Amino acid sequence: MSADKTIVAQVLALIRQDKLPPGAHLPAQMLADRLRVSRSPINEVLIHLHEQGLLQRERNRGFFVGEGLQAPAEEVNRRLGLEGQDAATRLYFQVAEDRLKGELPEEVTEVLLKTRYGLTPAQLQALLGRIAKEGWIEKKPGYGWAFSTMLTTPDSLLQSYRLRLALEPAALLEPGYQLDPQVLARCRAAEVHLLEGGIETDTADQLHDRGVHFHESLVAASGNAFFIDTIRRVNRVRRLLSYRSMQDRQRYPEHCRQHLHLLDLLEQGRHADAAATMREHLGATLANLAKISDLLGRA
User: How do residues 29-83 score in pLDDT, each as one tens digit?
Assistant: First the structure.
């Protein structure tokens, strides 16, 4: 069974992030929603992990975490041939950094990228595929690629937060708002993981994805498709700049505590208080990002 190694690595990261024990159910649709991909590649990954002896499979019930995933992450990654994923992530961030510095022009050819970064054809296509999926490059008609002009300045990131400041508190006040207890528990576990050491050890990718999942989960519970679509579109394209703000991790413990407080309020059904708290949370983040705009835009 052929499976996308990037998605394999992401599924394993979710299992570790949520601290799922042996026997925990892994619904394909839940994984697809969290990784924002279709069910087809998720099913391929689950079958692959089962074939490798890392997941259990029960007829008509699906896949479950196996005992093999209790081994150290490095050992599991070696077994699955995932050692190159860290290098691919570093390359992605190097391209992002060079674009933000203005060292890459708005339009590039595949030959330029291949030569500049010493890529194989497969590495080049994987890199372009990821960047295109996240919305900051697109194929030109006929020849070459063009970087998006969105989110290439510090003010772009601040604008995205102002949109979220208007949208997310309102989502918590939607009629019929209901956050699934299992989703709430996963969000809470992710915040506890960070407070117990993950802030220092998680990669920029993992920190970004944890924040995206938290906020998208809360908005999704509104049931309002327009809110959900908007927040997902914003999150797809803001990674380019938001990862730079992760170089300053001193603010993360307070972020985690604020997230946990929000979850407590929603669990208690105090939606108005949660909306006010979300407004304060995003407003404080916006103010902090404005203070480090020199870091975000530093060439």
Answer: 888 887 777 888 899 999 999 999 999 999 889 999 999 888 887 788 778 877 6
Helix (H) or strand (E) holding 209: helix 204-220
- Specify the length of the chain in residues: 299
Angle between helices 73-80 and 5-17 (to 10 degrees): 160
Q: Two tokens at 56? A: 């259990």
Question: What pLDDT score was predicted for residue 299?
Answer: 39
pLDDT tens string 126-160:
889 888 877 788 999 988 999 877 655 667 777 88
Angle, helix 225-245 to helix 84-101, in steps of 10 degrees = 90
Tokens for 98?
Answer: 């060079």
pTM, full prediction: 0.65
Q: Is 176 helix (H, G, I), strand (E, B) or coil?
A: coil
36 vs 32: CA distance, rounded Å: 6
Distance, in Å, from the CA atom of 265 to the CA atom of 260, rounded to the nearest integer, reads 9
Query: Half-sphere exposure (CA, 13 Å, Cβ side) for 283?
Result: 8
Q: Which of 203, 292, 195 is nearest to 248 (CA)?
A: 292
Share of the chain above pLDDT 70, in %: 87
Cβ-based burial of 188 (10 A; exposed 0-12, middle 13-18, buried ≥19): middle
> Token pair for residue 77?
């990654």
Q: Distance (Å, rounded) from C-alpha 59 to C-alpha 18?
A: 25
In the DSSP assignment, the letter for residue 67 is G
Q: What is the pLDDT of residues 178-188, one digit of tens each?
A: 999 999 998 99
The encoded tokens of residue 9 equal 């690595």
The pair of structure tokens assigned to 228 is: 């959900």
- Return d(Cα 260, Cα 277) in angstroms, integer: 11
